[in-house]
Amino acid sequence: MTQPLWGIDLGGTKIEGVIVPSLDNPQPILRTRIDTEGYKGYEHIIGQIETLVQTMKKQSGLQPAHIGLGTPGVLDPILQTMKNCNSTALNGQPLKKDLEEKLGVPCVLANDANCFALAETHWGVVKEKAPEAKLVFGIIMGTGVGGGIVVNGQVWNGKHGIAGEWGHNFLDESGGPCYCGKTGCVETVLSGPGLQRYYKSITGSMLSLKDILAHALQGNDPAAVKTIDRLNHFFGKAVSVITNLLDPDVIVVGGGVGNIDSIYTAGMESLHKFIFNNRVDVQILKPSLGDSAGVFGAAALVA
Ligand SMILES: [Zn+2]
């Protein structure tokens, strides 16, 4: 009998846990959550994860063989400390080692975009629409832009642990400075805040992404139309880099910006212009698991 899969999604506001029977059966045995309270510091976050795991053990009557953990940044494969986390209390900390000591169980860590790609591959839209896919690229375009690579059903982490971190590839100077220290990253152009900044640079006013989109669809706000046209143009240009380099079977696009329908039409036309091929066969799909992808992907890490 296979061991049930234990996954934990470490988010900025909540830590969520799930136990599922197997890759073939993702019907949760248990699903629960606890507040992260990250402002109380690193030790507190570790304590919250420990509390969550104790609760999961008590409620399920099970013991984990391994635990998969989705994190905001990545574990550096050489230094074995966390980096690139927007929950900055984690950066520089040996999270895997500390958790394994506290919990007494081997842990497998991956960043949230990797977990997203993995969950959509095994249990989400890829399973539904492209079950033969060997290479899946998952994109999260929201407040930030992240990416993850799944090869033959497994996360590909890479030498530095940054495989798929396409959000900090150079895209266009007009994006301006990025928090990572570089300029014109994909994230500065394609993230929600990037779109809002661009709109503000034309109009002087800060609108929500939802309002910019609504204005663009109504067609009576040229700056909003221009903002969405620019998104479509640069989405295609940025995705052409992924396609030329990895040529994935499927790209799944999550996050708030991933919900904008025009990237699947006008954005695809833009991709057509930029890829090194005379047609576009890669399937670009909307995810189907919603907010659940993070925690289920964490569980799939230990399959
Ligand atoms: Zn950057």
TrEMBL record:
InterPro entries: ATPase_NBD, ROK, ROK_cs. The keyword Transmembrane does not apply. It holds the Pfam family ROK. Keywords: Kinase, Transferase. GO terms for molecular function: hexokinase activity. The keyword Acyltransferase does not apply. PROSITE patterns: ROK (PS01125). This is Sugar kinase. The lineage of its organism: Bacteria, Pseudomonadati, Bacteroidota, Chitinophagia, Chitinophagales.
